[in-house]
Write a structure and sequence with these properties.
Elements (H helix, E strand, L loop, with lengths): L1 H12 L3 H28 L2 H82 L36
Helix pairs in contact: 1-2
């Protein structure tokens, strides 16, 4: 680049336009090369992106670790809850069995007391004569119409037929 500027100055001082033009061309080529080198470095420089990528990967790894720890804690809690529910279910079954046995015993006691009271009342009623045997009847006889002289025979009306 400095060579192009030197040619431009030399051509201007000695009034050589070709040298000035060659110096300008040489300066433009040098500037173009410098610009291309800067653009190439700017495009291919991935240090910032690599830093951002590394930070993103670390954050993703941290989140994955937190997620796995949360899953493990959730599984432990679920296991504990199942264990607690099983223990509570067993305790409730035992309590239910004890209450059922207690209620059965209470029912049997009440039943025995009622049977005893009923038997005593029955014995007292028999002794007082309230349960006297009824006189025996020979049975119920069905009387036919000809045996009752006061009644006239009645004709039934079936299926809408009218009789005399």
């Amino acid at each position: 680049m400095l060579g192009g500027l030197a040619l431009v100055l030399h051509g201007l001082l000695h009034d050589h336009s070709t040298l000035s033009l060659a110096g300008v061309a040489l300066s433009m080529i040098a500037l173009t090369g410098i610009i291309l080198a800067v653009v190439h470095r700017w495009i291919t420089d991935t240090n910032t992106e690599r830093t951002i990528l590394a930070a993103s990967q670390r954050e993703a790894q941290r989140q994955q670790t937190v997620y796995i720890a949360g899953q493990a804690a959730l599984e432990n809690e679920r296991t504990r809850l199942h264990r607690d529910l099983a223990a509570e279910h067993a305790a409730l079954n035992e309590r239910l069995k004890a209450e059922r046995a207690s209620l059965t015993a209470e029912f049997e006691e009440r039943r025995a007391a009622l049977i005893s009271e009923t038997m005593e009342a029955t014995v007292l009623m028999i002794r007082d004569g309230k349960f006297a045997p009824e006189p025996q009847t020979d049975g119920n006889l069905i009387h036919f119409p000809e045996q009752h002289p006061g009644r006239a025979p009645v004709r039934t009306r079936e299926h809408g037929v009218v009789g005399p």
